[in-house]
Structures are given as structure tokens and as C-alpha cells.
Amino acid sequence: MIFYGLAALIIIITALLWAGGLYFFKTAIRRTPKTFLVDNPNLKTEVDDELISSAADLHWLDAQDSKTITIQSQDGLRLSGIWLPSKNQSAQTVILAHGYSGKGREMAGFARFYAETLGYHVLMPDDRGHGQSEGEIIGFGWLDRKDYVQWVGWVLEHVGMNTDIVLHGISMGGATVLMTGGEELPSQVRAIISDCAYTSVEEELTFQLKQLYKLPAFPFIPVTSLITRWKAGYSFKEASALKQLVKVGVPVLFIHGEADTFVPTDMVYRLYEACPTDKELLTIPRAGHGTAFQVDGKKYKAVLDTFLQKHMPYREGSAH
Prior knowledge:
- The protein is of the alpha/beta class and 320 residues long.
- 41% of the residues lie in helices and 16% in strands.
- It has an eight-stranded mixed sheet, with helices on both faces.
- The longest helix has 27 residues, at 2-28.
């Protein structure tokens, strides 16, 4: 009798854990409205403008001669992006990677700097499961890394092999470009800019589970990771920017807000230490998650410009 009671209890606990894992999978990994981001205290900062791009930046983008382009991912998804060709026929290109639950056009502020100040071609993809791109699963950078390798291929095909490419991402996009950097890339990819990236999906979701639900990592993160492995094809542990950094072969500029409580600032120091290539670190006081560019744009742009001048070769038609 005791045995049957214990067995029933184990079955009930297992079912509850599985149900909890399915809930967290749907909440974080499925393409669903991310209501937990609304009024999230860890996304609040002291600055008034908390958006990655201002209304003026978005208006600027809408006024440009851009076009929507598409590619097909290795697993058959139609991925969409915005292509903004250089007005001075530059040989240099930036591929911008947006954050979690965002879309390419939200990177308009960065696009404007690269296009107007530096004269670059600009590509702003919508990640799988975001914006106009297909997909019901969010890849947290891990699935997206292979998509960005394909976006690099698209640039080489349409701009030419004589181009130089920088990958610049923010938040999930910051982790995405680091994960992409660990893949085999053509020599035209010259540098990576990683703004407020997390170390790994496992560590970031563990942090958010505690912040939002006051729950411990075990057993919820392992169970949800198992479900994600089953339904999405990747586990939280393998989706690691830290591990990919070991294989990165280009210079990396790491940026983070010192007041970031969504992706803790201490993560950037660990990423920086793990990077084996030429690297620089910029932290911005008072900047919360994803707001370093807005809080101190002058310093951000100056450091970024100097870094690119150092690592992006001069070519005819470039602004440098």
C-alpha cells in the first residue's frame, strides 16, 4: 500500500514538473506574446528614452531607399530582412542582430550611425520566430547562428567578395553574433560588436526564473531544457556564447550597461575574459539593459568608430 502511494506521488510530481516545463517552454521559447516583458522592473532605467531606436530613427529608416529581402534557412524557414545599400558605394557592411521579441527595424538607431556616419551597407534581419520571418520557435541565438552565417553568404553574393563585414548585436542579438563567431566564417567577417549579451541561455533563463517567479533552477530549467531539446532541437546548456567564444577568430568589442539588471553586468566580464582574440570592453554608467547607446551615445559611437577603424580595412568608397 505504501509502495502504491509512493508511486502515485512520484507520478503526480513528475506530471506537475512536466506541466511546469511545458508552461515555461511556451512562455519563453514558443512564438507567443511576451507579456512578462511588459512593465518588467529589470527593463526600467533612469533615462527617459528606453527604446533602442527613437521615433526619429524609425522615421529616418522609413525614408531610406531600403528593400525587403529573404533567404531560406537550412531547415526550410523563410527569413526576412531589411537591406539598406550604401549611398557612397562602400565596400563595408554591417549585419545587425536585434534582441529577444524584437525585429530588425528596431535597430534603426544603429543602422543610421553605420549608414550616415560610416557609410556602410546595412542588413537588418528579422530572426526566426520574430518580425516577418517564419518560425514558431525562438532560437535564443543558438539556432540563429547558422542563419547569420547564411546572411553573411547573402552579403558576399550581392555586394561581392571584396566587402568587409562586421556583426553587431544587442541583447539576444549580442549573444547571437558571439555564437555566430564560433562558426566557420569567411575571411570577410572582420569584427564582432556584442552589446549586453548573456553568457548562455541556461544562465540567463536561470536568472530570469529567479527574478520573475522566485523559483530555483532545479528542477525547472533541466525539465524545460529537455522539452526544448525535444520540441526545438537544442538544449539550454549547449546554447552558450561562452563556449562559442573559444572558437572566435576575429576581434570583439564587448559593451554593457553598468545598471543592467536584466542581463547582469557581471556576465560581460566573463565573456570578455573568455575571448581569445583582440578584444575591448566598454561599460556605460547608469545604462540599463540595451540602453548604452542612448545613455551615452557620444562615447559609444567614439569607441565603436575607433574599434572599427582599427579592425576594418580601409577600402575605396568607405567613410574612413
